[in-house]
Structures are given as C-alpha cells and as structure tokens.
Amino acid sequence: MGISMIWAMAQNGVIGRDNKLPWRIPRDMAFFKEQTTGKTVLMGRKTWESFGGKSLPNRRNVVLTRDQNYQAEGAEVIHLLEEGLRLAAEEELMVIGGAEIYSLFWPHADRLIVTRIEEDFEGDTTFPELDWNGWQVVSETPGVKDERNPYDYRFIVYERKK
C-alpha cells in the first residue's frame, strides 16, 4: 500500500512538450513499464489523452479530472484527491502525471521513482517546484547510453525520510 510517483525529467526540469515526452529513450520506457505493470496507475486527463485515450495494458488505469462528465474508455474516472488516497490505502498507487497531479499527490507520496536525464530540453511542462528536503536517495542506477538511448540518464529512487 502507499503512493509512488514515477516520471522522467530533464536537467532543466522539463517533463513534457505538446503533451508528449520531448526525448526518446526506449530503456526508460521499458523501466516505466517494468515499474508499473500489474499496479494501479493514476494520471490526469491530459496524461490520459497523451496516450491516445488508450489504457496502459496490464495495469488498472485511473484518470483524475475535475470534469464531472469526463469518460475514459478502459479507465476508471475519479474527481477527488480523496478517491485516489482511498485507492492507495488498498494497494500501491503509481502516480504517473502530469504536473498538477504530481503537485497534488506530493504531500502523500512515500516513494519517488525518477529518471533524471542529464540534458536540457525545450518544453512547455516542467516538474513543479516542490520541497525535496524530506526525501532521501535509496538507489541510483546509471542508464545505458547507446545509439537507441542517446542521452546520459540515471534511475533514482527516493523514499520519504522517516
């Protein structure tokens, strides 16, 4: 049980451009899939739509939106933070974006799984300015840079300090 948040972030804080990732790192996509498969993923409406309105396979997909009439085929739709917190009381909840959703769940998260890309990118969405003081690194693994994964990057797991 609990809340994990997972995202990839450029050195300059960028997490998206035009509702897409501004980079292509297949190993990061594989890492995301490995971390979230078999779990409940919670996302905002824009993140849901960035997947083409299709559910991520082998995961329980939950969309959080203020729009009371919003429907998402293949996903459950919720409207309140409290509904997400209730889910997290029953199972591990993986918060997968976007920026507003990360801000909302930050005070409740237990674990952060971050792909830090060692490069600046142009983008229109950045990770929110939040207080990192309450977090400690529990693992850090360098990503493999090659012709298909052209950037230096690291997978870092943080846990909330007790």
TrEMBL record:
A molecular function annotated in GO for this UniProt entry is: dihydrofolate reductase activity
Q: Does the keyword Plastid apply?
A: no
Pathway per its UniProt entry is:
Cofactor biosynthesis; tetrahydrofolate biosynthesis; 5,6,7,8-tetrahydrofolate from 7,8-dihydrofolate: step 1/1
Gene3D superfamilies per the UniProt record, alphabetical: Dihydrofolate Reductase, subunit A
Sorted alphabetically, which PROSITE patterns does this protein's record hold? Answer: DHFR_1 (PS00075), DHFR_2 (PS51330)
Enzyme Commission code(s) on record: 1.5.1.3
Q: Which domain of life is it from?
A: Bacteria
Q: Which UniProt keywords apply?
A: NADP, One-carbon metabolism, Oxidoreductase
Q: What class of enzyme is it?
A: oxidoreductase
Q: Which Pfam families match?
A: DHFR_1
Q: Which residues belong to any copy of the DHFR domain?
A: 2-160
- Asked if Oxidoreductase is a keyword of the record, the answer is yes
Q: Reaction catalysed by this chain?
A: (6S)-5,6,7,8-tetrahydrofolate + NADP(+) = 7,8-dihydrofolate + NADPH + H(+)
Family (UniProt): Belongs to the dihydrofolate reductase family.
* Cited function: Key enzyme in folate metabolism. Catalyzes an essential reaction for de novo glycine and purine synthesis, and for DNA precursor synthesis.
Protein name in UniProt: Dihydrofolate reductase
- Write down the species: Paenibacillus brasilensis
Tell me the classification of the organism that encodes this protein: Bacteria, Bacillati, Bacillota, Bacilli, Bacillales
